[in-house]
């Protein structure tokens, strides 16, 4: 199974990008992992929030295969402990699916079409984080989940 993290817009902070890259490398020991960045929309001043979500949604659909299982990283999603998230991933891997895609949306969230395509929503916290920070938190949690599944000493319970 491949796990893909799909995100809108590049990470501006070199420090954050360095940390994200570190976890990307670590994940390579456990699973095929891809981070795909969809470029920010240009000339958004004349677009409403809804129009921007629709345009971003069109770009997102171009990055998805018909067989992909899409999970949104959404503030209204289900919250998991690290142990629960590792169990969730194990179930997905056991199901035989080809690619599991986690999506970080743009500044206004997701279009209705994206919500309809998604098979689930996960929230990392009740707090709001920058989308760039969410990338780091998510790849770290993915790495943590795989160390839990392998009974490695990274996670302390």
Automatic annotation (TrEMBL):
It comes from Maribacter aurantiacus. It is an enzyme of class 2 (transferase). Its main location: cytoplasm. It is found in: Cytoplasm. Its EC number is 2.1.1.177. GO terms for molecular function: rRNA (pseudouridine-N3-)-methyltransferase activity. GO terms for cellular component: cytoplasm. It catalyses: pseudouridine(1915) in 23S rRNA + S-adenosyl-L-methionine = N(3)-methylpseudouridine(1915) in 23S rRNA + S-adenosyl-L-homocysteine + H(+). Belongs to the RNA methyltransferase RlmH family. Specifically methylates the pseudouridine at position 1915 (m3Psi1915) in 23S rRNA. Homodimer. Keywords: Cytoplasm, Methyltransferase, rRNA processing, S-adenosyl-L-methionine, Transferase. Gene3D superfamilies: 3.40.1280.10. It holds the Pfam family SPOUT_MTase. S-adenosyl-L-methionine binds at residues 73, 105, 124-129. InterPro entries: Alpha/beta_knot_MTases (IPR029028), RlmH-like (IPR003742), tRNA_m1G_MTases_N (IPR029026). This is Ribosomal RNA large subunit methyltransferase H. It comes from the Bacteria.
């Amino acid at each position: 199974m491949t796990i893909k993290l799909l995100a809108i817009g590049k990470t501006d902070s070199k420090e954050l990008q360095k940390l994200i890259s570190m976890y990307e490398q670590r994940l390579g020991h456990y699973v095929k992992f891809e981070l795909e960045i969809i470029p920010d929309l240009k000339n958004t001043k004349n677009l409403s929030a809804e129009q921007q979500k629709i345009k971003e949604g069109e770009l997102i659909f171009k990055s998805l295969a018909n067989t992909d299982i899409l999970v949104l990283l959404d503030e209204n999603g289900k919250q998991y402990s690290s142990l629960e998230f590792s169990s969730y991933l194990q179930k997905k891997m056991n199901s035989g699916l080809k690619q599991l895609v986690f999506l970080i949306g743009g500044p206004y969230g997701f279009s209705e079409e994206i919500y309809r395509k998604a098979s689930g929503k996960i929230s990392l916290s009740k707090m709001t984080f920058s989308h760039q920070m969410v990338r780091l938190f998510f790849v770290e949690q993915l790495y943590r989940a795989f160390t839990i599944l392998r009974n490695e000493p990274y996670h302390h319970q």
